Amino acid sequence: MEAVIAKTAQDVAEMLSGVDYLESNFRTVLARLLRSQKLEVFEEVVIPYVNATNQIPFGHGFVDIVILTPNGAILLELKTTKKDCTRQLQKYMKNWRYTPVVGGATINFNGDEAKVAFV
Q1: Which of 23, 42, 91, 105 sits between 20 and 30 A of 34, alpha carbons compared?
Q2: How far from the centroid of its chain's Cα atoms is residue 64's Cα?
Q3: 15 CB contacts (<8 Å, ≥6 apart)?
Q4: Torsions phi, psi of 4, nearest 5?
């Protein structure tokens, strides 16, 4: 699955090269290409933050893309800068409660390439 995600992200970077598109544009194209490969893909999924000690909800975040596999979820966090969003992805992975998390990746679209880092 890692090779599929990395290749698809690079395809998106090449398709949208030469112009400064928004993160949402990259997310939309990446999700559509992943779906075209028969993957179950969801965009901007809400992740509630709940205190583990007393179960008090205290907010939420939105993971950019979730790929559901038979074994669990793969969470993808996208950026259109060189910003390291590993901590943000780790927060989402920690708070994900819907299915087991089987992986995650940050994808930075910068220039004409996609830098994919699996967590």
Answers
A1: 91
A2: 5
A3: 29
A4: -65, -45
Query: Which amino acid, 116?
Result: V
Cα–Cα distance measured from residue 25 to residue 43, given in angstroms and rounded to the nearest whole number: 12
Type of residue numbered 12: V
pTM for this entry: 0.95
For residue 23, the model assigns a pLDDT of 96
Residue 20 pLDDT exceeds 90 = no
What single-letter amino acid sits at 79?
K
